[in-house]
Amino acid sequence: MPGFAIEVRDLTKRYGALTAVDGLSFSVQAGKVTGFVGPNGAGKSTTLRMMLGLDRPDAGDARIGGRHYRTFHEPARTVGALLDAEAVHPGRRAVDHLLWMARYNGIPRSRVTAVLEQVGLAAVARKRVGGFSLGMRQRLGIAGALLGDPPVLILDEPVNGLDPEGIQWIRGFLRSLAAEGRTVLVSSHLMGELQDTADHLVVIGRGRLLADTGVAQLLEQVSGGRTEVRTPARLAAVDALANAGATVAVTGPDTLTVTGLDPERVIAALTGAGVPFTGIAEHRAALEDAYMALTREHTTFATTDGDGTWT
Ligand SMILES: Nc1ncnc2c1ncn2[C@@H]1O[C@H](COP(=O)(O)OP(=O)(O)OP(=O)(O)O)[C@@H](O)[C@H]1O
């Protein structure tokens, strides 16, 4: 799978007095899941639409593998996109929708069977889309994006409205696509939807870049060195960790929050003292907190800048 990066440079889009995307620059690498995060109205969909040649920028540009989307002869073979899972006619059968897409894009029919299998919809291929749950429609949208076996996938809010099982599925699926060397860009307005899926995060607010960072780096930066430990032997764990020099707070019947020891040393201290544990994680809530802080700061900035409310 050739590596296709996405490069966004000084991208700007105005709707009348509103600057929906404001001098945005970032790049998206192949072989990773990149989360594109921002509150509602931050400009995510507008940015994705400009990448896909559906909206024309007022300034700057977005290139995929060094080229503008519109210049691709067979774009579906390079870029697969899911913008709106609701956009399929409800009277259509899933397989017919994909066959129509395949014909339109010059893709062999055999790919339709392959992608239906890939997204787990083979058994309902002949059912009408109107009877599909939102999760099934999201899967169908992803199947459509995969038809051309593209090296680049751009998915707008694919996790939105999924049940926990659907969320688990999509996480694993996106990660497997990235592991094949594909470029996977996935948007969400919720950090929680992406923090366990994405390797990298691009955070925007009011059309501007707020952060462009690895998930691990951001987590390290914001977790304040806190590690959560889940253990059935709470008291023994407190002793072992305190002996190793950590500060330990009991945060639940079987959970502890540890500061002053990195996760590797927490594991070493527990294992060395023979204390059982069922989970060790950097402080996950911290990422959500950081996201809230980033976007809140930006709201304050926007307000003091004199240009009104947060949409
Ligand atoms: N065609 C349009 N005409 C006028 N304003 C628009 C248009 N499209 C988007 N906007 C405005 O541009 C801003 C950015 O919208 P956009 O849909 O890109 O945000 P988003 O981050 O994708 O939000 P959401 O998570 O709600 O989808 C919003 O204030 C929106 O109302």
How are the strands of the largest sheet arranged?
Answer: 5-6-7-3-8-9
Q: Radius of gyration, Cα only, in angstroms?
A: 22 Å
Work out the helicity level: 25-40%
Please tally the β strands and state the result: 13
Biggest sheet character: 6 strands, mixed
Shape: globular
Ligand inventory reads:
adenosine-5'-triphosphate
Domain ABC transporter: 6-231
GO molecular function: ATP binding; ATP hydrolysis activity
Keywords: ATP-binding, Nucleotide-binding, Transport
Family: Belongs to the ABC transporter superfamily.
Descriptive report:
The protein is α/β, with parallel strands linked by helices and 311 residues long. It folds into 2 domains: 207 residues, 3-Layer(aba) Sandwich (Rossmann fold), CATH 3.40.50; 58 residues, 2-Layer Sandwich (Alpha-Beta Plaits), CATH 3.30.70.100. It has a 6-stranded mixed β-sheet, sandwiched between helices. It has a 4-stranded antiparallel β-sheet with strand order 11-12-10-13, covered by helices on one side. The two termini are 39 Å apart. The C terminus is likely disordered. The structure holds adenosine-5'-triphosphate. The site of adenosine-5'-triphosphate has 13 residues, from strand 2 and helix 1.
Topology:
Blueprint: E1 6-15, E2 18-28, E3 33-37, H1 44-51, E4 59-64, E5 79-82, H2 94-104, H3 110-118, H4 134-146, E6 152-156, H5 164-179, E7 183-188, H6 191-194, E8 200-205, E9 208-214, H7 215-222, E10 227-230, H8 234-243, E11 247-252, E12 255-259, H9 263-272, E13 279-282, H10 285-304
Parallel strand pairs: 3-7, 3-8, 5-6, 6-7
Antiparallel strand pairs: 1-2, 1-4, 8-9, 10-12, 10-13, 11-12
Bound molecules: adenosine-5'-triphosphate.
